[in-house]
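Bumping with the actual sequence this time:
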Amino acid sequence: MVSFLKALVYGAGGFVVVGMAALVALQERLVYVPVLPGLARAYPITPARLRLDYEDVFFRSSDGVRLHAWFVKQSPWKPGPTVLFFQENAGSILNISNCLYLTIMMQKLHCNVFMLSYRGYGESDGYPSQHGIIMDAQAALDHLIQRTDIDTSRIVVFGRSLGGAVGAMLARNNPDKVSAIILENTFTSILDMAAIMFPFLKWFIGSNGPKGPKILNYFVRSPWSTIDIIDKIEQPILFLSGLRDELVPPSHMQMLRSKAIENNRDCRFVDFPNGMHMDTWYSGGDRYWRAIQLFLDQYVPEIKECNISCKVGEDKGKFPAVKSPCARTSASTRK
């Protein structure tokens, strides 16, 4: 009997050790999935198939990696916000779900959309990592800031799942360039998600759950710890939470909100009882889009006083290169 118990303990210990080693060695493959099983890396569809006016945009990150994005424009052209869209961790920027989402977003919000392919995804070069994707997001924002055909004072970051972690980091680092941020079904950190996906490791990783040595936290190369930076974001934040999310527990969004409101009074939280991880927008229906529109109307409005100067830009399809004095105050001034 004693020998059997020893064997059981050693077997369980060996199982945990193997699991820990696999998690450390294969972590990038678990976090980043540029190509879904059975599919090619090439985009399954482009905005042209959706009859949307768009540009293929190629630019480089600060470390020289060549990146690809789609800039989808309003048609007919008119002033409006520009949404910098950061996708989830799996598949291309325009999978079947995002195709319909993009089309409805353009119709409902009357905005431009800039969709970045992270390094290693789609037509972007390189290999994904947290450090690299942070640089990619910054390069995308810097590209938008340099454009003359958008209102650069109305750039809104939108991130779903992993994209929320990417967007939160970008907004924290650019309080004067990003006007507002929208987070949908975003996790507190990859560490906490690992503890959920691999329950046998919950004593060794994450910040929630049972107390333990948490030694694996030191070996995770892409922690994406949004919970540690969310209270440092100065811009208005809209949280969109699907209460039936099968991947990210809705409690993660609640924790992010609770941490954010400690230092930011411009936070709005909307939950959707039937929303799952990728279909919250669909199950939420008009209420989902109305929540975003009200948020944009409140925090990223069109500046009526700028109509004369903006009219000059409209005539040429461009905005004035120099911002007028009537531009909105920054989030730091608003506080």
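The tokens above came from a reply further down the thread. Residues 1-31+191-220 form one domain.
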